[in-house]
Every structure is written in C-alpha cells, then in structure tokens.
Write a structure and sequence with these properties.
It is built from 25 helices and 20 strands. By secondary structure, it is of the alpha+beta class. Helices cover about 50% and strands about 10% of the residues. It folds into four domains: about 160 residues, Glutaredoxin (3-Layer(aba) Sandwich), CATH 3.40.30; about 325 residues, Glycosyltransferase (Alpha/alpha barrel), CATH 1.50.10.10; about 70 residues, Arc Repressor Mutant, subunit A, CATH 1.10.10; about 80 residues, 3-Layer(aba) Sandwich (Glutaredoxin). Helix 9 runs antiparallel to helix 10, helix 13 packs antiparallel against helix 14 and helix 21 runs antiparallel to helix 22. Strand 19 and strand 20 form a beta hairpin.
C-alpha cells in the first residue's frame, strides 16, 4: 500500500523513528542538516523525543503528528526533529534537564523548542491537539513559541544564559574534601526506609516504580546492620509487585510501572533494562531469605525475556509496546465473560484468584493480579490446596493460549549495548543460583554478540539493528558491559573477559573522564554530534547511574589488576558526588552502594585447588548462593599454566595438598582454611 507522505525518517534504523516516517510532518533525524536549515531560514527547531513502547508518544502522534492541519503549522513555522530516546540517551538527558529547569515535568513524549544553535528556550511533554487537561492545544503553543522566537530574542538569550549557568553548576561540581565515612553511608541508607509504603511495598504513593537500585541498597544495608525493617521493606515490595498487575501474571515479565499504590494497574510497556534489574533483586532476596518464591519469580521473568525478547543469534531486544491495535493494554486485559466462556466451571475459582469482577479494575476490564491465597480458596470452595493449584495452572495455560490469538504489542527489535550488559549480569546471577548451564550459555552468547557487533576500533557502539551498529557508546554502555565482563570472569576465571573489561575501562577513561574536576561525562565529545552542554550526573534513573557503576568497576579492577590509578580515579569520582548523595540518598542509591565497596573494600576470596574438583565446585556454589555484595574471587588452579593471578591471590597455594581457601578484607586475612565446614561458616 502506498503512503501519502514519506519523510527523512524512512532511512533510519530505529523502529520508533520509522513509525513516524509517513507522518505529514517533515521530520528530520537529529543531524547537522536540520540545524543548518533552521539557521538559514531563521526558524526555531521543534525537538520531539520519545520511544516505541511509550503510550502517550503514540497518542500524540495520532492526535497531532498525523493531523495534516497541525503538521502544516509545524512545517511552516519550525524545523522538526524526531529523536528515539533509547538511541540517543545523551540528547534526551540534556533536554529533560532543561525542561525541568524551565519548571516543567520531565517525561515522554518530550517536546522542546530550540534555537538553531541547539539551545532550548521552552518545552514540555505531551500537548493535546486542542485545549484540554489544563493545557493549551498544540497549535496555539506552536504559534506562541514562533512569535516569541522572532519577537523576543533578547529574552530568549537571557533565558539561555541562566540555563547554561544552572547546568554548569550541576555538571562542574568540585570534589568534596570531607571524610568519606561509614556512619554517613549507613545513615543515608537507613533514611530511605522513611519513604517505604509499609502497607503495599514500594516507595511513596502512586505512581510506583520498581526502584530496583533503592531496593538493592536496602539489602546491602541489611547485610551491614541486620535492621529487620530493611529486609521487611524489600520482601514486602517484591511480594506485592509479584502479586500485582505490574507483573504479567500469565506471560511473566514486569511492566514499567504501576499507576496506583497497590501495584494493580500498570503502564503496560515492558522494558529490557527494568526486567534485567528486577531479576537481580529477586535473586538477591532469595540469597538472603532462601524463600523459593523470589527465585521462582526471577526465573519466570527470565523465561519471558527468552521467549519474547531474545534475538536468534544473541542479544536482547529493547522493549514491548504498551499498545496493541491502537489501544493501551488491550493484549493484557480480560472481561469476566471472556474467562467464563473459556474456562467453564473452573472460571469462578480463576476469577477469585485473579481478582476478576464484572465491573473490572481498568476501563471496564480486568488486569489480572493475585487477589486470594491458595489456602483461602481451598477453604472457600471446599477443595484441597493441590486441587486449587491444579485448576489455576490449567486455567492459566488456557488463558495464555487464548491470549496468543490476539495481536501482540509491537516489539522494538533494536539491541542496546548497556541494557544487554544488564541482561548478561542477570543471566550470570541466574546461573549462580540455579546452576543451569543454559543461563551461562546465553550470557556468553549475548556478550559475544556485543563484542562482534557493537565493539569497533576499541570502542563500544550504542545500538544495533538490521546487521548494523551505530552511535557511539555512552557512559552507561561502558559501565554495564564492563560490569558484565567482570561478572563473567568471576564465573569462568578466563582472563579474556577481565582483559576486555580492563581495555574498555581504559577507553572509557580516555573518552569521558574529566581530567580537571573528576567524574565521568555521560558521553564522549563528538564534533559531528555536538550538544550545547556536556552532562555529568551521578543520580540514578531507571538504571543505576553510569558514574556509580563505573566507580564499582574501577574498585574491583584495582584489586584484580593491582592498579592504584583505577582506585584513585574511583575516589575522585566518589568525591564529586558524595555530598549530594548523602543529602539525597534516594536519588543517589547507586553511589551509596558503591561507597560501601569503597570504604569497606571487597571480600578477597582465593580458592587454591583445581577448578574442576568436586569440592571446589561445591565451594563455588556455596559462595555464589550466598549474599556477598562486594567480593573479588579467584580460583588459583596450578594446573592452568600461563595465568597471571591477581595480587590478592598471588603466593596462595594449597596446604598439605588439600583445597585451601584464603579470605581477606581491608589488609586482614583469615588463616588458610582447609576444612569445608569451617570455610562455609566463614563465607
């Protein structure tokens, strides 16, 4: 079928940009040509940023960007640029900060108005096609912004000057000279508990996000303090999330966030980065509590990723859309009549279990969530718990089969480097807990895919699709891939992974390290992709901050490679953000986590023995199944020739020809241990 309109986005790889390729808006991708045209014609730039799984991005497209009248105004008054935030997180981060400094709320779709010099002077998020929701309509905003650009340039220049000053204060922090101490870190960690919802889990009120970095910090704080409130807060959150509508009760995987405080009604998109981080928190909760429930949820989420998000030759896709057939959540919701028609006499039990009612809980339909416990249902229906579980399992399979007949949500099939690093680390966690080779095989496959397709000229690329890698890697790409390579080394003890992590770290320092003040910029300098300001941030977003993750990587590598320069860079990075992190630990949870590693140092574990030995494998399983948040680990296998052990493992051999374990921390070591029970106790 022919299209009435085709714009420059038709040549892009991003599925999100291609969705807009037939809008009547004369879209440009982010490129020099667009800004040169804006300068030549003296027009402002309308920058629209979104992503393919974003429901309100689709709404704004249908209402405004497909509207020929509105598109005509945009084309006449502006040069229009469309950006996929997942392809260009550096652009998104910068202009999100700008809009928030203008007094607006960040989010997507992001709508920002720029000068031809890329400088923002006004912006917001979703704008309706006519006045509603307390907002002016987009056509009125377009005309007003155009008039302001042409008639009030001095005011715009003053606004830009102030904006640049504020951004400079955010970026150009001076390293603190204060002592970095454990009391500050503990107090900062415990303060997060004040934000916990004791009834439903999570933090604050609606909307609720998984906040995985904050949950990880509470687990780390519990390890340090044994504060029961910390572990209770995490368990309560993870259980309520797993039983809520934010968790896809049929297909597995977690939606991006819940719009209510009880986790029942989600924003329906599913993101790779969210699910990878969620998997790791559930596995860590299992390590501490040994509650099989947490392990099962983590594995169910992994199965979802394998089924829906895995590329046939390696690598995980980015996201699944919230919408199908143009309706948000349509793929996931049910009416009671649908379930009764499908399940017959078992429907009543299934409906009670999943909280299904005639009126529904979402626009007349039902988002499935666990509403009744098995024991309560057994009592209510006078059946055994085994019978109830069998009925629910059979009903679930029938619902899944029926749902598969529906049109699936759109899947964004680009592969993002950093998010795949998160997935590799999640897979390695799964292997450590479940001892299933398939998890390790998939982790290796994904890491190999990254090295083959997203690593060129000793540098990472950011995204891959249709056999092409593009866009220079950003700080998070390096941070998460380096972390995953270190994780892989700690499983395989194959030096190639540690060498790659070291090489990538050296490239990262060269590309993004701030030699003057310390800390890492969010992206490298690229003269062809120049932005009006270079950001350097330490706060967490949906993922831990790149600076926090890099800090952790540097400290671990300093032990594995005996490299004091890495530790010095790590300390300077921490000092840049330390004061802000202590003042605002919720938003800097990643930095607080890394601070524990910096202050206390990792637990240095050396096992002297043959890796293939049954007793060594038993010890490794014990270590991997135990919650040890900061460790460096090495098997000193004398049978493996040509290996250079890290400094902490050098000169550590077997005693009396028996497997021997050495455990050191902060320049203090245990005696060499040879008795398995004694070793397991100390671990």
């Amino acid at each position: 079928m022919g299209h009435k309109y085709t714009n420059r986005l038709i040549n892009e790889l991003s599925p999100y940009l291609l969705q807009h390729a037939h809008n009547p808006v004369e879209w440009y991708p982010w490129c020099e040509d667009a800004f040169e045209k804006a300068s030549h014609e003296d027009k402002p730039v309308l920058l629209s940023i979104g992503y393919s799984a974003c429901h309100w991005c689709h709404v704004m497209e249908r209402e405004s960007f497909e509207n020929e009248d509105i598109a005509g105004i945009m084309n006449r008054l502006f040069i229009n640029i469309k950006v996929d935030r997942e392809e260009r997180p550096d652009i998104d981060d910068l202009y999100q900060h700008a809009v928030q400094l203008f007094g607006g709320n960040g989010g997507w779709p992001l709508t920002v108005f720029l000068t031809p010099e890329r400088e923002p002077f006004f912006g917001g998020t979703y704008y309706p096609p006519e006045a509603r929701y307390g907002s002016k309509g987009l056509p009125d905003i377009l005309r007003a912004v155009s008039e302001a650009y042409h008639g009030r340039k001095r005011e715009i220049e003053a606004t830009m000057k102030e904006l640049k000053n504020v951004l400079a204060r955010i970026t150009d922090k001076v390293p603190t000279g204060e002592e970095i101490n454990i009391a500050d870190i503990d107090n900062a960690s415990s303060s997060i508990l004040r934000n916990c919802d004791l009834s439903h889990g999570g933090f604050g009120t609606a909307p609720k996000f998984p906040n995985t970095t904050q949950l990880s910090l509470l687990l780390r704080y519990y390890k340090k303090s044994s504060d029961p409130m910390a572990i209770e807060a995490v368990e309560n959150t993870l259980r309520n999330m797993a039983e809520g509508g934010i968790h896809d009760q049929l297909g597995g995987g977690f939606h991006r966030y819940a719009v209510d405080e009880r986790w029942q009604i989600p924003h329906f998109e599913k993101m790779l980065n969210d699910n990878a981080l969620i998997i790791r928190v559930y596995f860590d909760a299992y390590r501490i509590t040994k509650d099989q429930f947490f392990k099962n949820i983590a594995e169910k989420t992994l199965n979802y990723l394998f089924r829906e998000m895995y590329h046939p030759v390696g690598g995980f896709y980015t996201s699944q859309d919230a919408d199908s057939e143009g309706v948000e959540g349509k793929y996931f919701v049910w009416t009671k009549k649908e379930i009764e028609s499908l399940l017959g006499r078992d429907a009543e039990i299934i409906c009670r279990y999943y909280g299904v009612t005639d009126d529904g809980n979402y626009e007349g339909k039902n988002v499935l969530h666990i509403d009744r416990e098995i024991k309560a249902l057994a009592h209510e229906f006078e059946l055994s718990e085994n019978d109830i579980e069998r009925i629910i399992a059979n009903g679930r399979e029938k619902l899944i089969a029926k749902r598969m007949e529906r049109e699936k949500p759109f899947r964004d099939t680009k592969i993002i480097t950093g998010w795949n690093g998160l997935a590799v680390s999640a897979l390695i966690d799964a292997y450590q807990i479940c001892d299933k080779d398939t998890y390790l095989d998939k982790a290796k496959e994904t890491l190999d895919f990254t090295r083959s397709n997203l690593f060129k000229d000793d540098k990472l690329l950011h995204a891959w699709k249709d056999d092409a890698g593009k866009i220079n890697g950003d700080l998070s790409d390096y941070a998460f891939i380096i972390a995953s390579a270190i994780d892989m080394f700690e499983i395989t003890f194959e030096d190639e992974y540690l060498s790659w992590a070291e090489s990538l770290t050296n490239s990262l320092i060269q590309l993004m390290w701030d030699n003057e003040r310390g800390g890492f910029y969010n992206s490298a300098v690229d003269e062809n992709e120049r932005l009006f300001h270079r950001m350097k941030t330490g706060s967490d977003q949906a993922v831990p901050s790149g600076n926090a993750s890099t800090l952790t990587n540097l400290i671990k590598l300093s032990f594995y490679r005996d490299n004091e320069d890495y530790r010095s860079i790590a300390e300077k990075t921490l000092r840049i953000f330390y004061k802000k992190a202590i003042e605002n630990p919720f938003n800097y949870a990643g930095l607080i986590l890394a601070s524990y590693l910096y202050i206390e140092g990792p637990k240095e574990i050396t096992i002297a023995g043959k890796k293939a030995d049954d007793e060594v494998q038993r010890l490794l399983r014990k270590i991997r199944g135990t919650y040890i948040p900061e460790k460096v680990l090495y098997v000193a296998d004398e049978a493996k020739e040509g290996r250079n052990p890290p400094g902490f493992a050098s000169a550590k051999g077997q005693k009396e020809n028996r497997i021997t374990v050495y455990i050191c921390q902060n320049f203090t070591c245990s005696k060499p241990l040879t008795e398995l029970e004694e070793i397991e106790k100390l671990i």
